[in-house]
């Protein structure tokens, strides 16, 4: 790991009682020219459909650009839409790369290349946070968690050339300090039309539920923060004005937007006055109440992504997902459908409690309840989670390229790996057969969810168990 050292710039009032922010601003004023950053969203190398078609604008990386852009010149590159990283990095002082597990090897390669050219290299995102010692071998500094909470220290060290190997906040800043994301960094690309029309937005951070397969509790602990409602609503109005239309489409990137019911319901009530459309990932813990679904529909919600995960109560208990009550599944679905809200339902397979019957139960549930967009994945113990520590002796490999929730990680005790994959492929092909699509989608508005189903029909027809190895 390379750590940049340089002579420290000392502010004239360094011996007086001044705040770290004052020192940073003094260093900024001493700059003769602004340092230049290259900020990179790497593409994954997985064989599955992770980075295909339109992709969401990377909100977390846009926030990095927004924060850093106040002090430094920014070049923003998103490999997923076809942007290319230059071989010659001489114009840049800092190369900052985000990473999930499935693109960690690509992020590491970028970091290695930048280090060879003498650049300050920052690696952030979920994977470097979870495995910061490993990531530290490919960068100057690892950013643990969010950059906003360590920004003053990091920016000061960059200007002074006194980098630390790890930047981790002692406490997280309130979300009221969060700047409105500047989407111009991403939209400046000639290929920006490849981004989804959904505008990513954030109202809350964290999820105290504590599912043992989730990385969020490791990053944020039991913290749950939220922005003032006026800030969220003002951001929505800004985008309505930017686009010149009231019916802007938003996608909440929150881990669990409904964890504080009073906050969530008040937000929905205010959103109902704006004329927008929105979707979100959401816990189902109080969607069994008809009035909640009615308010969500009235506020412009057209799709909710729900982690049903499994139809097996023992599995729900084993992964500590107490918000999922299988007896409420059908009631939740019915409440949402009655209010015109489509469901993207997530189902996982490969738990030790799974049997061949698990696949049939899931198929029956999906078809009976006409789940519009079922998404299937294989259980993946991600680094940094309690589940990873528990399953590590049984994990077949640590090839991060395959940590995409679509590759076979370990053999469950209830069936062989061969049986698991055979049934996993069969379930997807049955759910996305033409007649199954028509049965699930009959009478529903013709929109992108229909198109996604037809794309999945073509995709699943090509599947085989070998793809998942």
From TrEMBL:
GO molecular function: catalytic activity; iron-sulfur cluster binding; metal ion binding
Entry-linked SMART domains: Elp3
Cofactor(s) the protein needs: [4Fe-4S] cluster
Pfam family, one: Radical_SAM
UniProt entry tagged with the keyword Metal-binding: yes
Domain of life: Bacteria
Gene3D superfamilies, per the entry: Cobalamin-binding domain, tm_1862 like domain
Keywords attached to this entry: Iron, Iron-sulfur, Metal-binding, Methyltransferase, S-adenosyl-L-methionine, Transferase
PROSITE patterns, per the entry: RADICAL_SAM
Keyword Transport: no
Radical SAM core domain segment(s): 193-413
Gene Ontology CC terms: cytosol
Protein name in the entry: B12-binding domain-containing radical SAM protein
